[in-house]
Amino acid sequence: MTTIVCSDCNQAKGKEDFSKSQLKKKTTEKRRCKSCAEKVDGNNNSNSNGNSNSNNNPCYHGCLTKKEFHCVEYYRFLEDWSQLDLIDDHETYNKECGEFYEKNLRIMRDPFGRFVIARIADDYLKGEVGDICHRLSLLLSIRYVYFQGLEGKDVVSLESEYTKSYKKYVRDIQTERGRINCMAREIPCDCMEKKRIEAQSMERVAICYCCRKEFPKENMLRCLGCNYDQYCSQKCSIKHWPEHKEWCKRNSVSSAPTPASASIPSSFGEPSDDDAEE
Q1: What pTM, to 2 d.p., does this model score?
Q2: Are residue 20 and residue 120 in the same domain, yes or no?
Q3: Coil, strand, or helix at residue 184?
Q4: Are residues 81 and 148 in the same domain?
Q5: Alpha-carbon distance 154 to 234, whole Å?
Q6: Are 278 and 232 within one domain?
């Protein structure tokens, strides 16, 4: 008998205990059983207009209770993370982020993950964009690296579905379309549905990690060394090499990364594109 572990109660259950929409999700995504979904629905008031709140029945975007949505401890952790976005130096930023993860490893799972995406979505729907990309990167680290790693899943090898999804989604959230799809995919309510539908008509673009300009997604090249950074051209790849070099060597999937490594399409060998239902 095939069993699926519910992301909320962590119990292994049969397919009949999950709705069709939950069964359609990828194995790397959170899946909530019918029982836990009913508990969430009791607290949430998701509406098709994409409004984050109703005066009488506010939606907590996946948090199981109002108390969880307003958790002071989690809010402080999120604020500490937001402060790191003020660091300009790339090496210092990476070092401080790594220390943050190590220091707070004990909370790098749900319900903190639920809290993070709930607050991100709530702020976004109120027009408070702020450091949304930085906070989404925290969410992706929690859900596709730390949580899965603690569960014994492969989050290191190049062929791991979690690794592929994590790297792709982190690149995607550099654009508005990618951020919307990420939020719509990661919350269980429908509050982002209107935004997700609007995003389908947006141009599919990606950010070059050197010049920081947007280009058609299908034209981007990905570094063969780290299999992560993407560029609009070989020229930008070479120009960015002095800054990218040390990080690339530490995270390389190739034995000898070079500044001319960006030579394959950025979408090569990755999960399907970024629409939430895919």
Answers
A1: 0.73
A2: no
A3: helix
A4: yes
A5: 32
A6: yes
What are 81's two structure tokens?
A: 């993370």
Contact 93, 243 (CB under 8 A): no
Q: Are residues 214 and 234 part of one domain?
A: yes
Query: Do 261 and 137 fall into the same domain?
Result: no
Number of folded domains in the chain? 3
Picking from 202, 237, 265, the residue at the C-terminal end of a domain is 202
pLDDT per residue as tens digits for the range 211-265: 999 999 999 999 888 888 999 999 999 999 998 888 888 777 654 455 545 554 5
Bridge-partner residues for 231, per DSSP? 221
Neighbours of 267 (CB within 10 A): 18
- Same-domain status, 9 and 61: no
Residue 269: both structure tokens together: 């060998």
The boundaries of the domain holding residue 160 are 48-202
Q: What is the DSSP string of 71-140?
A: -HHHHHHHHHHHHHTT---HHHHHHHHHHHHHHTGGGSSTTHHHHHHHHHHHHHHTT--TTHHHHHHHHH
- The H-or-E segment that residue 36 falls in is helix 34-43
Distance CA 66, CA 25 (A): 26
DSSP state of 15: G
Angstrom distance (rounded) from CA 142 to CA 146: 5
Strand-pair category, 214-216 with 221-223: unpaired
Amino acid in the structure at residue 221? L
